[in-house]
Structure to design on (400 residues):
């Protein structure tokens, strides 16, 4: 679905930013005004214009807060958080050491934290014990009654952040009586940017401590814990659910069987062979050429090197090999919803592979392009995604 740009990546990321308007993450006029000043594939202009918009909206929020206009402040600060995240998106030359990446990501977190403090329902910033450190998270509660409620544990993806979770699922969950416990795991958000933790394939090592933490909270019903994964999180949570059996349900948005295959399916066969055989002297220069001609490929490979702790593009691709459900899919034993986007440019065909491998009760739902829901993770159609997901959860949890 082309949206404001011919460049496939710019189009998708603009749709992503605009689609969060559903729960206060953007305003369409602000998106249109920002996008019209950005040239096709111009990553410098992308950062400049989204940053300008974020700063302007941030200032509106700050003035409203100072004047005691609580709702206006919250609404502006939520939008600013999303715009700061969007501004940082393509800044991937040396993100681990880039002060602009640090500034924009910090501002995205800070504006969201300010907005969270102004919400009508309780929001608690938490630290979840993990190995010898802790992971940042938010616990979004339906109310302050302390009543144990069904709770979604949300795992983000390859490039998403903890703060984005509110627009994707938390606001919709709260309206339906579900709490949400969201966190940045290794390779994600602040865990990557502030703690230098990178992705790992054995995600049960991440989810089990999160479930352990959830079970310490009296607001979370222990027999109605839902694990939900978003984008790459569709693999991560499935892998975790194969080993973590305290779950009432699993939601994969979208289903992902092999992250390695999702990466290599678009590579020329000779390049795959060079990567697999360690011919990095040949593979990396060719990958560099591919990156010059595609915004999407350039961003994805640079982001992969950073988030996976790789030394090169070829090293990153090899590191994805272990991100597969081979040998573990049959161990998942809770009811599972597998979502599929009809025109998914990243994971096409992967949800069907997941469905074929599962032995637990399962439902596969394909949301179509004709409904505006055919993009990866149903960007631009958050209401449709949320409706399909929570209607299934309501039914599934009521019969368990």
């Amino acid at each position: 679905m082309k949206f404001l740009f011919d460049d496939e990546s710019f189009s998708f990321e603009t749709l992503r930013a605009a689609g969060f308007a559903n729960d206060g993450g953007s305003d369409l006029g602000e998106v249109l005004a920002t996008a019209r000043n950005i040239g096709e594939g111009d990553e410098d202009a992308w950062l400049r214009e989204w940053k300008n918009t974020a700063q302007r909206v941030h200032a509106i929020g700050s003035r409203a807060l100072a004047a005691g206009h609580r709702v206006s402040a919250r609404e502006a600060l939520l939008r600013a958080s999303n715009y700061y995240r969007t501004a940082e998106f393509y800044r991937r030359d040396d993100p681990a050491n880039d002060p602009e990446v640090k500034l924009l990501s910090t501002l995205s977190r800070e504006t969201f934290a300010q907005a969270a403090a102004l919400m009508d329902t309780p929001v608690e910033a938490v630290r979840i014990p993990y190995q010898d450190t802790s992971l940042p998270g938010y616990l979004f509660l339906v109310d302050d009654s302390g009543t144990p409620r069904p709770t979604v544990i949300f795992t983000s993806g390859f490039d998403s952040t903890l703060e984005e979770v509110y627009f994707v699922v938390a606001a919709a969950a709260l309206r339906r009586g579900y709490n949400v416990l969201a966190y940045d795991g290794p390779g994600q958000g602040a865990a990557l940017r502030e703690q230098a933790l990178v992705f790992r394939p054995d995600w049960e090592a991440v989810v089990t401590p999160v479930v352990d933490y959830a079970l310490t909270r009296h607001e979370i019903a222990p027999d109605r814990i839902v694990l939900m994964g978003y984008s790459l999180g569709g693999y991560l949570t499935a892998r975790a659910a194969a080993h973590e059996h305290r779950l009432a349900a699993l939601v994969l948005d979208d289903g992902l069987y092999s992250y390695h295959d999702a990466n290599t399916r678009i590579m020329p066969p000779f390049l795959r062979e060079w990567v697999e055989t360690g011919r990095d002297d040949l593979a990396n220069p060719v990958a560099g050429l591919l990156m010059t001609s595609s915004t999407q490929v350039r961003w994805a490979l640079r982001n992969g090197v950073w988030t996976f702790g790789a030394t090169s593009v070829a090293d990153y691709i090899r590191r994805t090999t272990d991100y597969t459900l081979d040998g573990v899919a049959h161990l998942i034993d809770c009811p599972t919803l597998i979502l599929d986007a009809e025109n998914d440019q990243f994971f096409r065909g992967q949800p069907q592979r997941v469905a074929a491998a599962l032995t637990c009760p399962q439902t596969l739902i394909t949301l179509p392009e004709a409904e505006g829901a055919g993009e990866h993770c149903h960007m631009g159609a958050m209401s449709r995604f949320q409706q399909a997901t929570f209607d299934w959860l309501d039914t599934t949890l009521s019969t368990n």
Notes: Strands lie at 123-130, 133-140, 149-155, 179-183, 220-230, 249-253, 336-341, 362-367. The first helix runs from residue 8 to 19.
